[in-house]
């Protein structure tokens, strides 16, 4: 499996705890945290809520999530200059983003896509992936 | 009987071994808060504060941390949080002063003052807010100075750092309001501390002539303002700079 490929089983394994943690951060019912709901448009998440979610996920899963990690994961090996230019995601970048955020329906990716608007795409599944990637990073760091 | 709501709360104070910081540490501990203070190099003074606290039955702990070191701040806050499981109040008091006319300031005089006074505020605040955001409460109190607003010869570095603290305080108040975290500053005038000794020795009468109350302040008089902002009585106060300066006049 490629380094940033994640199976549905892995996602479903972390999802219940992620959903519970996100519901705490957003002050909503856990049932509302569906795997594919848009956090900003569907659950009214604001920028501070994203920080809150990350801090809580770090605690709940005992992981470290560097700020900006989702976009960094999505960008993969693509150099930053090829991913975005003047705040707009390039064509190459958009392809990379669509591939990493494969759970998000194609019609939600607007062109031109501003880097600042990328968080509008995020769903709980995005955060499940973030947790899984952070767990993998931690395993690599421990040499296991 | 007034209840400040500080009993059982957890407070971190930087620059707590001497002067205003020590007064803040002792007052918050008197109110029943569990206080950890950070000091940079005066281990003897720090040990004295801890020992005096223990004698008086107050919960005071100390840790050697240089606030200019972001990682050291983050690690120390994590240790303090792990001990106490929460962080309610954070007072950034650690301060440096190196007065001289701008043309005569060495690079290091500028850097050291900015790194400690405003860099330390950034480092400490960034370390504590994850805890406050998650618990949806917290009070951040920065120590500014009268010199942020009122010009004083030889104080460009110090005044710039304190003006930055006021701007920082107002911006962060906006950022953290959705989580009910308040951010305020206290701006002391000339207070009787070791740090202000040189100013008082060099220009004592001139300085006093600019103070309406015609005397210097005492460290505990600044601590009372910090206590108020840390207490539940200030739940509706955010983004403010409270002057405790005896009525300091512009030159």
How helix-rich are the residues of chain A, as a percent range? 40-55%
Net shape of chain B: globular
CATH C-level category of chain A: Mainly Alpha
Low-confidence stretches of chain B: none
Radius of gyration based on Cα positions of chain B: 17 Å
Report the order of strands and helices of chain B.
Answer: EHEHEHEHEHEHHE
Strand order of the largest sheet of chain B: 3-2-1-4-5-6-7
Output mean pLDDT of chain A.
90
Radius of gyration of chain A: 15 Å
Q: What is the level-2 CATH architecture name of chain A?
A: Orthogonal Bundle
Q: CATH superfamily assignment of chain B?
A: NAD(P)-binding Rossmann-like Domain
Q: How many domains comprise the coordinates of chain A? A: 1
Largest sheet of chain B: 7 strands, parallel
- Given the helix and strand composition of chain B, which structural class is it? alpha/beta
> Per CATH, what is the topology of chain A?
Non-ribosomal Peptide Synthetase Peptidyl Carrier Protein, Chain A
Quote the beta fraction of chain A: under 5%
Cα-to-Cα separation, first versus last residue of chain B = 42 Å
- By DSSP (H or I, 4+ residues per run), the number of helices of chain A equals 7
The mean pLDDT of chain B is: 90
Characterise this structure:
The complex is a heterodimer of chains A (144) and B (251). Chain A is an all-alpha fold and 144 residues long. The longest helix of chain A has 19 residues. The two termini of chain A are 17 Å apart. Helices cover 55% and strands 3% of the residues of chain A. In chain A, strands 1-2 form a two-stranded antiparallel ribbon. Chain A has a single domain, classed as ACP-like (Non-ribosomal Peptide Synthetase Peptidyl Carrier Protein, Chain A), CATH 1.10.1200. By secondary structure, chain B is α/β, with parallel strands linked by helices. Chain B has a single domain, classed as NAD(P)-binding Rossmann-like Domain (Rossmann fold), CATH 3.40.50.720. Chain B contains 7 helices and 7 strands. Chain B has a 7-stranded parallel beta sheet, sandwiched between helices. In chain B, helix 2 links the parallel strand 2 and strand 3. Chain B is globular. In chain B, 48% of the residues are buried. The model of chain B has no long low-confidence stretch (mean pLDDT 90). Classes of the chains: A mainly alpha (144), B alpha/beta (251).
């Amino acid at each position: 499996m490629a380094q940033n490929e994640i199976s549905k089983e892995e996602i479903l394994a972390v999802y219940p705890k992620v959903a519970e943690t996100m519901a705490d951060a957003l002050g909503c019912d856990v049932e509302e945290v569906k795997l594919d709901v848009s956090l900003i448009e569907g659950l009214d998440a604001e920028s501070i809520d994203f920080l809150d979610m990350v801090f809580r996920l770090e605690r709940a899963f005992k992981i470290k999530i560097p700020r900006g990690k989702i976009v960094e994961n999505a960008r993969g090996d693509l150099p930053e200059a090829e991913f975005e230019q003047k705040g707009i995601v390039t064509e190459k970048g958009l392809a990379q983003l669509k591939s990493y955020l494969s759970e998000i329906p194609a019609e939600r990716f607007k062109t031109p896509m501003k880097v600042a608007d990328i968080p509008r795409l995020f769903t709980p599944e995005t955060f499940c992936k973030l947790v899984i990637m952070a767990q993998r990073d931690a395993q690599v760091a421990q040499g296991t | 009987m007034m209840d400040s709501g500080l009993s059982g709360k957890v407070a971190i104070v930087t620059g707590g071994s001497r002067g205003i910081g020590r007064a803040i540490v002792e007052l918050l501990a008197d109110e029943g808060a569990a206080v950890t203070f950070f000091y940079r190099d005066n281990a003897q003074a720090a040990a004295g504060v801890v020992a005096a606290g223990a004698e008086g039955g107050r919960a005071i702990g100390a840790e050697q941390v240089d606030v200019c070191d972001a990682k050291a701040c983050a690690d120390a806050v994590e240790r303090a949080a792990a001990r106490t499981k929460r962080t309610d109040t954070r007072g950034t008091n650690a301060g440096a002063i190196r007065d001289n006319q701008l043309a005569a300031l060495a690079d290091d005089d500028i850097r050291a003052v900015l790194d400690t006074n405003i860099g330390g505020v950034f480092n400490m605040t960034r370390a504590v807010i994850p805890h406050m955001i998650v618990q949806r409460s917290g009070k951040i109190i920065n120590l500014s100075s009268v010199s942020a607003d009122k010009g004083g010869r030889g104080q460009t570095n110090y005044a710039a750092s304190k003006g930055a603290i006021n701007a920082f305080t107002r911006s962060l108040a906006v950022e953290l309001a959705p989580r009910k975290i308040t951010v305020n500053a206290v701006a002391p005038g000339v207070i009787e501390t070791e740090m202000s000794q040189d100013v008082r020795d060099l220009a004592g009468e001139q300085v006093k002539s600019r103070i309406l109350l015609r005397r210097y302040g005492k460290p505990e008089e600044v601590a009372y303002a910090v206590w108020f902002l840390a207490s539940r009585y200030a739940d509706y106060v955010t983004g403010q700079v409270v002057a405790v300066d005896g009525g300091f006049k512009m030159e």
